[in-house]
Model the fold of this input.
Amino acid sequence: MFAYIMHTLIFWHIQTSFLPQAFTSISYVTLDSEINAKWQNESIILTSEPTQAILVKDKVNKLFDGLFNLSYPLQCLWFVNTYTVEIEPDFLKGQDVYTLIVQENNITVIQTYTFRNLKLTFIDLSRNGIQVVENLAFANLSNLEVIYLAENELTTLNSKAFENLPKLRELLLMRNYITLLGPSSFDFVKTRGFMLSISNNRIANIDEDTFRGSNATNVSLFLENNLLQQISINIFHNHSFLEVSLTGNKIRTLTGNLEERNFEIGVLRIENSFDKKSFQSLLNWTIINNITLDCKTCVSTNLKNLAQPVHFQKGLSVIFLIFFAICSCWIVVT
Ligand SMILES: *[C@@H]1O[C@H](CO)[C@@H](O)[C@H](O)[C@H]1NC(C)=O
Ligand SMILES: *[C@@H]1O[C@H](CO)[C@@H](O)[C@H](O)[C@H]1NC(C)=O
Ligand SMILES: *[C@@H]1O[C@H](CO)[C@@H](O)[C@H](O)[C@H]1NC(C)=O
Ligand SMILES: *[C@@H]1O[C@H](CO)[C@@H](O)[C@H](O)[C@H]1NC(C)=O
Ligand SMILES: *[C@@H]1O[C@H](CO)[C@@H](O)[C@H](O)[C@H]1NC(C)=O
Ligand SMILES: *[C@@H]1O[C@H](CO)[C@@H](O)[C@H](O)[C@H]1NC(C)=O
Ligand SMILES: *[C@@H]1O[C@H](CO)[C@@H](O)[C@H](O)[C@H]1NC(C)=O
Ligand SMILES: *[C@@H]1O[C@H](CO)[C@@H](O)[C@H](O)[C@H]1NC(C)=O
Ligand SMILES: *[C@@H]1O[C@H](CO)[C@@H](O)[C@H](O)[C@H]1NC(C)=O
Done:
């Protein structure tokens, strides 16, 4: 009898650890367009009437194909602090979800085909401890505009993770441990006004061909608080940047072809850790190329083209702010 009970318990344990949602229920809150909140308690996450947002308020060890049966398009799906450790490839197959937030969990790998052929416009995977983003993790997402991977543990930027994302215009990688940007890192950067934030990482090296395959224009590139001690301006050749931010590094030398003029930089933010001669070449270079220099530590008498105050907010995207406003209002109401 005892053996029978033990056997049953072990069997049950194995079942539940492999299929955690199949035998238990998941608690979540649904919000409709009038922001009426409703607690649901179901074996999978489902909607049987039009729903704007779903907030999962439970432990969900794994996100997998079959976890959802959404009968209506869903604007916003949240898994924040849900003890999630894995996302299976194609887990959202056939579900119309536009904004997905999986934050403050313990997902270490974003696997190949995790996000593909979906209608998603915004994916936020920040604060998960992600160490690896595999090739084709994000593929064929024709509406996707923003990928938020901030505050993870990435040491490299895998450009092959991003395939056929024609509308992507923001990739946010702040506060990871990325050490270098190799050749063709940004081949997937293809839209005008792309914003690329890799501030607060550990970048010590940027390859001259980092932007080689990119045809984006008006790119905003944020590289503040990294470990750069030198930078080749050839990185910028043949490309156009609205803004390049290099403050919080200790850049002592500019290398590369200072004569070449086949590029554009609107504003360059940097500080003066140069020797006198290098600083003079920097100044000459910015003047010749009509670059507005924003350099608070530069001695102002040396500056012919003193920086204009720049009015746009850096670091935070407009989309994110709008989205955040909408979603926070839902949260507040619950
Ligand atoms: C959901 O259902 C489970 C099991 O039926 C129960 O233990 C739990 O309290 C329920 N939660 C809510 C929020 O109703
Ligand atoms: C999903 O829900 C619909 C009804 O809302 C139902 O007809 C359908 O069988 C469900 N699909 C699955 C795979 O459970
Ligand atoms: C993530 O893992 C850490 C350490 O392993 C643990 O302390 C923390 O509670 C976990 N968080 C979640 C949301 O599972
Ligand atoms: C992306 O779409 C193309 C064309 O529809 C298809 O050939 C390719 O296999 C898709 N890639 C993935 C990763 O699904
Ligand atoms: C870059 O090239 C792709 C085609 O490969 C095109 O769809 C896109 O519009 C181009 N981007 C810019 C800014 O010209
Ligand atoms: C770049 O952005 C500026 C300001 O937003 C705009 O005036 C300019 O037309 C843009 N140039 C290109 C090539 O997109
Ligand atoms: C500059 O870019 C254009 C297209 O964007 C390309 O045709 C040309 O070969 C590039 N030149 C260099 C020197 O890379
Ligand atoms: C900077 O430009 C000035 C005047 O055009 C020139 O005399 C000087 O040698 C240049 N300095 C450097 C370091 O290129
Ligand atoms: C330099 O830039 C300013 C504004 O950024 C622009 O008005 C001016 O025409 C530019 N001058 C040249 C020579 O490109």
